[in-house]
Amino acid sequence: MGRGYIVEDVVEKYLSNLSVPGASCVTGLLIGQSSSQRDFVVLAVRTPQKDTEGQGSPSVSRGAGNSLEYLDVEWVTEHARQVSRMLPGGMSVIGVFLVTPPELSKEAQNTLRRLIFAVDKHISKGRLWSLTEEDVTEKVTLHICSKTRKVVCRTYDVRDPKSSAKPADWKYQSGVCTSWPLLTCSVGLNLVFPVLEMHVLPQDMEKCMKEGLQTWAKQIEDGLCLINGDAMPGEVELLGGQVKRSVPFWVAEPQSERRLTATVKVCSGSLTLKGMVQCRAYLHSNKPRAKHATEVIKRDVINTVSSRVEMFLEDLLMEGEDKGTVFVLYFSLGVR
Fold it and tell me: What is the pTM (predicted TM-score) of this model?
């Protein structure tokens, strides 16, 4: 038997409402959290219609007939990226679903495989934190027949391009995440990124800030996290009393024996990133340990800052603005 998925019962109702006989194909995302023993699905979100010149059009062309060949994979993956930006820490897109009429059931499995690999690749692009050996790389695909409502659940290892489908157990349950602990964290930012060129274009800003954020993200990953003011060993299990309330975190500078080196560069300007990051993350209640808590909150800090910077740069590139050689970006990142 493959991986097991514990699914919030509201997801069953949501998917049931999408499984209407005679309706067109529907794609969507499965949101939740993975653990070493089992995964948890707490939300399902359908892919919205793509607005083309003011006309709504589904992700599968109406002219496609009895085929999924024209499914808009790019639109599905972009939706996944946008959803990922809005999720609190600990939550991620762990799978995709597809609702089709019975005549497309065989074709659906190949389509789901193509979708899950494309979605993971698009979301992972530009990620600033590193995967660990304990990270689960199996993602789930769910096919639902709109007529019989039969559900087929399979997983793929997205780190293996040749991965074949594995059967998975899909079980609905109420109150899946009601007992999950909430982790909170505040991190102040005052980052300065050097600009080497005299005339700074939006593309140059993007390069400078991404390089600077990679260094900062590594410092966050190596930093010391305190849980309720204490430095806990990674294998310590968070007990019931600790996980029923908000757990504040503090991230300190890493204490490393590695010698730090400084490089002197002649710069024509700088980019400054200032603000206060207010983050929160949720941790599953399946024997959570201190190392899991520090991991989800650190990743949320990194993802929050990275996403906000990406959105700022995207707006700048769209507007084509060039504001000079010195840019100062002041912002406040609120709790998601």
Answer: 0.85
